[in-house]
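Course assignment 3, question 2. Fill in each field.
Student: A.L.
Task: Predict the tertiary structure for the chain below.
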Amino acid sequence: MGDPKHSDGTGQRADLASLRARVRAIERGGAEAGQSVRFPLGHGALDDHLDGGLAMGRIHELVGEARSELRDGSVFGFAAAMLVRLLSAPAARRGGQILWCARDANMFGGAPCGWGLKALGLDPERVLFVRARDEAERLWAMEEGLRCGGLVAVVAELGPARPGEAGRVAERRLQLAAEASGVTGILLRPLANAVTTGVADSRWRIAAAPSGGSMLPSWSVSLERLRGGRPGAWQLLWTAAHGRFRDLEECASPPEEVPEVRPAAAQSAAA
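Answer field:
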């Protein structure tokens, strides 16, 4: 155990706050009572790699392809697919909702919309959008949402991870709130030159991938960090009708056979 006098910036001693979170989780019969409660992603090899799925009541970080602004369809789509899997998990709260702390649309691009989420299989009526003036307010809204036991998950669109103590304190507050309530948190960030504070339970890099003619959302997914696990990489395709991931190779359309075309003179001779 670390120095009990060390404060994590939450207004409480870090070890005491962490201990209280574990006690509350045990009282709920949640993650800290034994092995973490997990939700499977519906892909055999990926779930095996994750020891059954992603941990609920934890913070997970998705990094997209954008360089400065999070206006990235690939990371939005993967987050929506992940939320579909979370809502369908047996341990998820029935009827619970998702709080999405979004940036405002600007010259770099738009924001999540109901029709887009619905096309990915995520019911937009279960998503509550919060508009905030800046990132500090989005972090505050996310922390408050994570403390609300009636929610299933909280998503926040943020900028690149902040190096140093300030970034670790901010994410530590989020992690403690998630552990205490059992609500899962998802951070969406633009490409940040591999800057990470190391607090999130998992960190993913998401990039668009060729669909192979299937016309379904597909991603190149790299798991860069997993607490207690190891990195990995997959080419995944999302089938919203079934609410599960599949290997991209499974759905790639084979090349069409081109019929042989012979010159007219050769055809006449053959006849």
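Instructor remarks: The two ends are 90 Å apart (CA to CA). Confidence is low (pLDDT under 50) at residues 1-15, 24-34, 253-259, 266-271.
Grade: pending
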